[in-house]
Amino acid sequence: MAKKVAVIGAGVSGLASLKCCVDEGLEPTCFERTEDIGGLWRFTENVEDGRASIYQSVITNTSKEMSCFSDFPMPEDFPNFLHNSKLLEYFRIFAKKFDLLKYIQFQTTVLSVRRCPDFSSSGQWEVVAESRGEEHSAVFDGVLVCSIERFKGQYFHSRQYKHPEGFEGKRILVIGIGNSASDIAVELSRKATQVFISTRHGSWVMSRISEDGYPWDMVFHTRFSSMLRNVLPRSALKWMMERQINQWFNHENYGLDPKNKYLMKEPVLNDDLPSRILCGAIRVKPRVTEFTETSAIFADGTTEQDIEVVVFATGYTFSFPFLDPSLVKVEDNVVSLYKYLFPPHLEKPTLACIGLIQPLGSIFPTVELQARWATRVFKGLCVFGESQSQILQTNYIDYLDELAVEIGAKPDPLSFLLNDPKLAVNLCFGPCNSYQYRLVGPGQWKGARNAIFTQKQRILKPLKTRALKAPSGLPVSLLLKILGLLAVAVAFLLQLQWF
């Protein structure tokens, strides 16, 4: 008889978990408090209590080839960085393709998840939920918690921001320097008289566009570059990263230089922020020390008068209102979960938190691998070892590989070197995306190799919307290289004749 698994939430983590349950022959039931899938990525005009919220213009910071599910590439005509509505469309296509909607109970709120009296032997959980005013309970063999973000703040928080209308002609202060703060500041700066952005520590700012116009994460996240970052001395790595990031613009000149450059924390991805600062539409200020009725006083002693709106873009806290507080503890951004998934002290590993992590890369492949491993643990096919507390932010590729090793799905480039050298080279030097974790082991997908070699085609498809004639003859750059080589050869021959 198939084991029953409760999946709490129908966002990206919940959808990935549902499919993994089905793939492993488990019987899932998903509880979704709203009327639709998508979680955070489903835009609504109204702010819903206890639910993270996005503004209308949100675009992904990770590209489609690095963010898709491992056995379901995004349509090739989708843009490389997706508007939230486009990403939600992909989720709908994914859910329809694998027939996932039939497992979801919409408008159902989970009230409590408690261990059954015989938990030490059965590992089972009692889940109590409410739907349309009626409570009901059921017993499950495993629980995947996929709904964990919960706002805790006051005043006008960034989660309440939806669009820039209504802010025309105002002087606005945005507190924070994360991705949301930067996006909101840039968008408001096109309507407001003046926008100030207050940051305590500064931040590196990167563009979504990298070498030759390719998405940044396709260039940054390769196994080779990850290996270099692991073996290089920290001082050398800091120097290289600082030099590379400052090639776009000098962060010190813009008041954005991070206070602690040794902390390789998540950078801000924003293509417009430096331009808006350069135009004077946004001014960078230090931390706020005091507010008066109409002004803000900053740590450097300066004061900005006539501040009409303050936006707190200071992030979210994590909580689990339906769980016993002793099961999962998050303090000072440190979580007591084994490999960011399992509460370590449970007698049976039948509860997992999917997505309680901040990878320096796409969250989508991360939660999918987490769900693949968790469902196999539930089935007794995988085990885990000793526990340890871990920071919510972690090295991206190392963590993906760590999960893949547990599953038995980590690709070994050396094993492909003789039989498929082209693939081996791609695994080492190409983008480390989710397809790589479908090449071998449980959950192997026959289309993985082809998906790896056709990703460039899917990247360029939405860009090449204007037909261009193929250049006739050799490119000028190639001709110059040939002439340069000929000049070197002639000089070498003349040198020989001299002797």
Break the fold down into its secondary structure elements and pairings.
Blueprint: E1 4-8, H1 12-23, E2 27-31, H2 64-67, H3 84-97, E3 104-105, E4 108-115, H4 119-122, E5 125-131, E6 134-140, E7 142-145, E8 149-150, E9 171-175, H5 179-189, E10 194-198, E11 205-206, H6 216-220, H7 223-231, H8 234-245, E12 268-269, H9 273-278, E13 282-285, E14 288-291, E15 296-298, E16 303-304, E17 309-312, E18 317-318, E19 330-331, E20 334-335, E21 351-353, E22 358-359, H10 363-378, E23 390-391, E24 393-394, H11 396-407, H12 413-416, H13 421-429, H14 448-453, H15 455-460, H16 476-498
Q: Strands of the biggest beta sheet: in what spatial order?
A: 3-2-1-7-21
Share of helix among residues? 25-40%
The total count of helices amounts to 16
Please identify the structural class as seen in this structure: alpha/beta
Shape: globular
Number of strands: 24
Q: Nearest-angstrom radius of gyration?
A: 25 Å
Percent of sequence in beta strands: 15-25%
Give start-end ranges of low-pLDDT stretches. Answer: 149-155
Average pLDDT rating: 88
- What gap, in angstroms, lies between the N and C termini? 88 Å
- Biggest sheet details: 5 strands, parallel
